[in-house]
Amino acid sequence: MTSAVIRAGGTLVNKVRSKINPRAVRRVDADKPGSGWLVVTVLCGPSDIATAELPAPLAKFGDQIEVRVRPAADSKGTELAARLRDPVPSGTAVSRLSGTDSQSDLRSALRQTKQLIEVKEVLVVDPTPHGERPPTPGGELLETWTKAARKAGVR
Hints:
single chain, 41% helix, alpha+beta
């Protein structure tokens, strides 16, 4: 009985805090996957990544992101994690296709940063191996999805 009252009181306090200042409430599950952290494992030591001087893809976000660096499990590199300070819900298919989904942009920037740290360049396939597609509605749709796929990554 007592634990139910304590939980109810905690829930009430969190709701009041979130109404007053939504950014002040720290979620209990802040380190779980749903917390907005995007993580890549980089093949280098934690001391090789300076969070004060991030590579350009992440640096362009400035103060919009939080960055965390820690050793990966079993000493297999370094985990580089980033998340938006003001999280927005994952965009719709339309926002992702139009290039206005900030979560996708951050995911893409993390992958590019990993490549810059490991091989000193961002690897791209250029020109497109399949050549030019005809300007048909199907070809245009496929081109649009191909551009959006670069940001999607593995979920």
